[in-house]
Amino acid sequence: MEQTQKLVDSLVRGLKEKKGRDIIIINLTSIETAPAHYFILCTGGSPQQVETLANSASETARKELGEKPTAVSGLENAIWVAADYGTVMLHIFVPDAREHYDLEHLYEDAEIKEIPNEI
Questions:
Q1: pTM above 0.90, yes or no
Q2: Residues 6 or more apart from 108 whose CB is under 8 A from it?
Q3: First and final CA of the chain: distance in angstroms?
Q4: For 68, how many CA atoms within 13 A lie in the half-sphere containing its CB?
Q5: How many whole angstroms from its chain centre is CA 98?
Q6: Which pLDDT does position 109 carry in this prediction?
Q7: Directed axis angle between helix 2-17 and helix 47-65, to 10°?
Q8: Which CATH number is 2-109's, of 3.30.1490.110, 3.40.50.300, 3.30.460.10, 3.40.1390.10?
Q9: For residue 107, what pLDDT band results from cuts at 50, 70 and 90?
Q10: What is the Cα–Cα distance from 51 to 57, expressed in whole angstroms?
């Protein structure tokens, strides 16, 4: 579990480095049927920023921990990019897509940690 927490922290650092907004970490460890231990959600202001955020998070995790996603989808249009790290799922959206899919409320009984936006 310690390695998973390091991965979460590394991915968040990569998102913050490129000014990711409204980052939340959803702890799913208490939900048996959850597809991962953690979801990380982030918003980018445009498809270009979503792609930049995904690349920054991936590069940070690779450099710091040697971790790579097993699958990445959505880079073609960069409206919603999902990166699967096994125990961690990273989701980066443009604002409209994040509001539409509303993953924050998918697991309402999970612990949610909000990361403050940097000015």
A1: yes
A2: none
A3: 32
A4: 2
A5: 12
A6: 86
A7: 140
A8: 3.30.460.10
A9: confident
A10: 10
